[in-house]
Write a structure and sequence with these properties.
By secondary structure, this protein is α+β, with helices and mostly antiparallel strands. The chain is built from three helices and eight strands, in the order H-E-E-E-E-E-E-E-E-H-H. It has a four-stranded antiparallel sheet with strand order 1-3-6-5, with no helix packed on it. The protein has a four-stranded mixed sheet with strand order 2-8-7-4, with no helix packed on it. A hairpin with a 2-residue loop joins strand 5 and strand 6. The chain is elongated and about 90 Å long. The two termini are 18 Å apart. 12% of the residues are buried.
């Protein structure tokens, strides 16, 4: 009497391993890109403004988690002195930090820390430049000629300085779309599941007999 051991096909097992590997590869970048990113700011990063504004605003890619100590900002002047005036406020994805509204010309440094919508803290920094500062605002009126000076035909008034605002550096770096990754993962899972189901349901050959065919006597 002969007995034949049934062997399971190796194809479904290999496809299941491939399915798991594909899921891990596609899910890893999705989870890594889930943190909210800074989209824009006012003043913008690496931009120039004439005088220090009364407030600084940061716009992120999604609604932030607000709470005690969750949002922290520091803004310092060229000498390293703080120019913030009060605590920051969070309204959805926008953070507003009041400033003193006055300060010397030079480079100002901004350091921020927030808590993303996924619960993970994220931070960054950038700088902007004040071109005139308090000195330029105080000396904006033209000077008058002394009484004994001869009149001239040319006007000596200096043109007003215009602030150049650079485009927001973060507008083109939006966070990756979560829905695109979800649809790609679902499509790969569905396709591989159909392949596995077709192979498992494939008809098999006739079952082996338990005994040899009778021999002629």
């Amino acid at each position: 009497m002969k007995t034949t051991a049934l062997r399971r096909p190796a194809a479904p097992i290999a496809l299941a391993a491939t399915l798991l590997a594909a899921f891990l590869v596609l899910f890893s970048p999705l989870s890594a890109s889930a943190h909210d990113a800074l989209v824009s700011s006012s003043p913008a990063a690496d931009s120039s403004v004439e005088t220090l504004p009364a407030e600084l605003t940061l716009t992120f890619s999604a609604k932030l988690i607000d709470g005690e100590g969750a949002t922290e900002l520091t803004v310092t002047d060229p000498a390293g002195e703080s120019v913030i005036d009060g605590a920051p406020t969070v309204d959805g994805a926008i953070v507003t930090q009041p400033l003193t509204g006055s300060g010397p010309a030079g480079e100002y440094r901004v350091v921020w820390k927030v808590v993303s919508s996924d619960g993970h803290p994220t931070s960054g920094e950038f700088s902007f430049t004040v071109t005139a500062g308090d000195e330029g605002a105080a000396t904006g009126e033209p000077t008058t000629a002394p009484p004994t000076a001869a009149p001239t035909t040319e006007q000596t008034a200096t043109p007003e300085a215009t602030a150049t605002t650079a485009p927001d550096a973060g507008n083109d770096a939006g966070a990756p779309s979560t829905w695109i990754w979800v649809l790609v993962i679902l499509g790969v899972l569905a396709a591989l599941s159909v392949v596995v189901w077709l192979i498992v349901r494939r008809p098999r050959g006739p079952a082996p007999t338990d005994s040899d065919a009778p021999s002629e006597r």
